[in-house]
Write a structure and sequence with these properties.
7-stranded parallel β-sheet, alpha/beta, two-stranded parallel sheet, single chain, 9 strands
Length: 198
């Protein structure tokens, strides 16, 4: 069976005020990104340069940079679905070296797919007067999409650079872009097309 992917409009340029924008990097951790990780996403390593480019631009412009970090205890019930991964305090749970957070960045440890669920993320964004969220990372149709959806339901604008997310399958990748565009009215673009301007 062949499935036709609906047309997904791609924004050629997205200009954002850095003072009201947060770049959110979802779960770029060893267990998901590295080939020897416990839940490796085949294309995750390919997104590292694009995400790094966005981090550099965001920091230079003064935008907020937030990392989410999947973080599980030994007997987490999620392991019944995915097997053990991102175990608290292990190499697999650490953010990849190429994208290491800096002192002024925020790290939000999360225990479920959605980075807003029972975390401090919404509080951080509200205190910082954030209106725009650029959402990047892995796994596209799981933690990335749940976080994007949760941002949209809280009336944050969602911007998703398509070269800065990765999924286990191509179907999952396109399903994510479709949902963000169609359901959450987010903007799909590329990392190079995002500009910061006060």
């Amino acid at each position: 069976m062949k499935i036709e992917v609906p047309n997904i409009p791609i924004e050629k340029e997205v200009t954002l005020n850095p003072m009201s924008t947060a770049l959110i990097i979802v779960d770029m951790q060893n267990d998901f990104v590295r080939k020897n990780g416990k839940l490796s996403v085949p294309t995750a390593e390919n997104t590292i340069p694009y995400i790094k480019n966005l981090i550099d631009k965001a920091r230079s412009a003064g935008a907020l940079v937030v990392y989410t970090q999947d973080w599980h205890m030994k007997d987490d019930p999620e392991f019944k679905i995915w097997g053990e991964h991102a175990l608290a305090g292990t190499w697999g749970a650490e953010i990849v070296d190429e994208l290491k957070p800096e002192k002024e960045d925020f790290i939000v440890k999360k225990y479920r797919y959605d980075a807003f669920f029972e975390t401090s993320l919404d509080y951080i964004l509200r205190v910082k007067n954030i209106k725009n969220t650029i959402i990047t990372g892995t796994v596209a149709n799981i933690c990335v999409l749940h976080t994007a959806g949760s941002a949209a339901l809280r009336w944050y604008n969602v911007i998703m650079p398509k070269d800065s997310i990765s999924a286990i399958t191509e179907f999952d990748y396109y399903a994510t872009l479709r949902q963000v565009d169609f359901l959450y009215k987010g903007k799909i673009t590329t990392s190079d097309s995002i500009k910061f301007e006060r």
